[in-house]
Task: inverse folding
C-alpha cells in the first residue's frame, strides 16, 4: 500500500469484521521481526486470536530500501497508514513523530501497541488519558522489564488486589556488571569490559549505567501498580558508575549484595489520596532477599500485594526477539478483545 492510496484525514476506525487491520510504524530490529511473524505465522495467529491479522502497511523513513518483505507494504506516510488500521504497532522509537501518531490512533479508537519506553516514561500519563477518553487500548509489554511479562500480570491477574510495593532490578546490563564485581572481586571497569566482550552493553551504555533506563522502567511499573501517573522526572535515580570493588567487598562481608534497585512504594497523602514514591539507586540487599539471587544479565520484579502476598518474576533482558514476542502478545490480546467472527 502506498501513501496516496490511503485517506490522510482522521476518520472513525473501520467497523470490525473477521479481519483486523494491523499497521506497523517502524521496520528496524523489532518492527521487522513483528512484520515477519505476521506474514509467516498468519494461520497460527488467526487461530489464537480468532481474527485474521492483516498487515496493511509499514511506515519507515526510506520505503525504497529492500527489507526482505513485500515492497508494496512500505510507506513514508505514517498518518495515512494510521488512519487505515484497527491496531497500530508503534516501533519507531523516539518521541516525535511517535507521540503524535499514537495520539492520532487513540483518538480514532484504534488499539495501540508500543515498545517505546522512552516516550511512555516521558509522557505516558497524557497518552493513557487519551486512551481512556476514547475507550481505546494502549499496551506496552515490550517496554517494561525486558522479557518479563509484567504488564498483564499487574493489569489483569492482580487487578483485584492492592499492590503496596514493587522492588525490581530492571537493568540487565547493570545487574551483570554488579554481579561480576560481587562474584569475582573485579573492579567496575573490569566487569564492564567483560560485559562488553559478551555483547551485554549497547553502543552508548550511559542510560543503563547511569540508571536512567531503570528509572524509566520504574516509572512505568509504578504507574501500572499504583494507578497513579508517574513519569521519569518523578523518579530520583542514580546509577552504578560510582560503585567500586571496596563497596562490593564491604557489602559482601556484612552478608549483603549491591543491586541497582528500583523501589516504588504507595504512600498515603495527608488529607486523603495516594501517591507513589519511586527511586532507583545502588542498594545493599540482604543475601536472603529473593532479588539478591538475581544473577547475570537478568531482570526481576518483586511485588508485594495485600492479598496475593509476595510474588517474584524473573527473566532475561530486553532484546529484539523478546520485544517482538511481547509485542505479539499485546497484539493478540488486542485482537481477542476486538474480535469478530472469522
Ligand atoms: N531493539 C531492541 O532490542 C528493543 C527492545 C525493547 C524495546 N525496544 C524499543 O522498540 C522500539 C523500536 O526499536 P528498534 O531497535 O526496532 O529501532 P530501530 O532498529 O532503530 O528501527 C526504527 C525504525 O523506525 C523507523 N523510523 C524511525 N523514525 C521514523 C520516522 N520519523 N518516520 C518513519 N519511520 C521512522 C526507521 O525507518 P528506516 O528503517 O527507514 O530508518 C526504522 O525502520 C524503540 O522504542 C525501542 O526502545 C527495542
Result:
Amino acid at each position: 500500500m502506498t501513501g496516496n492510496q490511503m485517506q490522510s484525514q482522521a476518520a472513525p476506525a473501520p467497523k470490525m469484521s473477521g479481519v483486523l487491520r494491523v499497521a506497523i510504524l517502524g521496520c528496524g530490529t523489532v518492527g521487522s521481526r513483528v512484520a515477519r511473524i505476521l506474514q509467516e505465522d498468519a494461520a497460527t495467529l488467526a487461530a489464537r486470536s480468532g481474527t485474521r491479522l492483516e498487515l496493511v502497511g509499514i511506515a519507515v523513513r526510506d520505503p525504497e530500501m529492500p527489507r526482505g518483505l513485500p515492497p508494496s507494504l512500505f510507506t513514508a506516510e505514517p498518518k495515512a497508514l494510521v488512519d487505515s488500521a484497527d491496531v497500530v504497532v508503534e516501533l519507531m522509537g523516539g518521541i516525535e513523530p511517535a507521540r503524535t501518531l499514537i495520539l492520532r490512533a487513540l483518538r480514532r479508537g484504534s488499539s495501540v501497541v508500543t515498545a517505546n519506553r522512552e516516550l511512555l516514561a516521558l509522557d505516558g500519563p497524557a497518552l493513557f488519558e487519551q486512551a481512556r477518553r476514547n475507550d481505546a487500548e494502549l499496551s506496552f509489554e515490550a517496554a517494561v522489564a525486558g522479557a518479563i511479562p509484567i504488564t498483564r500480570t499487574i493489569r489483569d491477574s492482580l487487578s483485584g488486589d492492592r499492590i503496596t510495593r514493587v522492588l525490581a532490578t530492571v537493568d540487565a546490563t547493570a545487574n551483570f556488571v554488579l554481579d561480576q564485581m560481587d562474584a569475582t572481586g573485579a573492579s567496575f571497569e573490569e566487569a564492564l569490559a567483560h560485559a562488553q566482550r559478551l555483547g551485554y552493553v549497547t553502543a552508548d551504555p550511559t542510560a543503563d549505567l547511569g540508571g536512567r533506563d531503570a528509572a524509566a522502567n520504574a516509572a512505568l511499573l509504578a504507574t501500572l501498580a499504583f494507578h497513579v501517573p508517574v513519569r521519569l522526572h518523578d523518579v530520583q535515580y542514580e546509577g552504578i558508575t560510582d560503585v567500586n570493588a571496596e563497596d562490593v567487598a564491604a557489602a559482601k562481608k556484612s552478608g549483603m549484595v549491591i543491586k541497582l534497585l528500583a523501589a516504588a512504594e504507595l504512600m498515603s497523602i495527608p488529607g486523603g489520596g495516594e501517591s507513589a514514591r519511586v527511586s532507583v539507586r545502588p542498594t545493599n540487599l540482604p543475601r536472603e532477599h529473593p532479588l539478591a539471587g538475581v544473577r547475570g544479565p537478568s531482570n526481576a520484579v518483586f511485588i508485594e500485594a495485600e492479598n496475593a502476598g509476595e510474588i517474584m518474576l524473573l527473566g532475561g533482558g530486553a532484546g529484539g526477539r523478546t520485544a517482538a514476542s511481547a509485542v505479539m502478545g499485546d497484539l493478540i490480546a488486542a485482537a481477542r478483545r476486538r474480535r469478530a467472527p472469522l
The two ends are 23 Å apart (CA to CA). Confidence is low (pLDDT under 50) at residues 1-8. The first helix runs from residue 29 to 40.
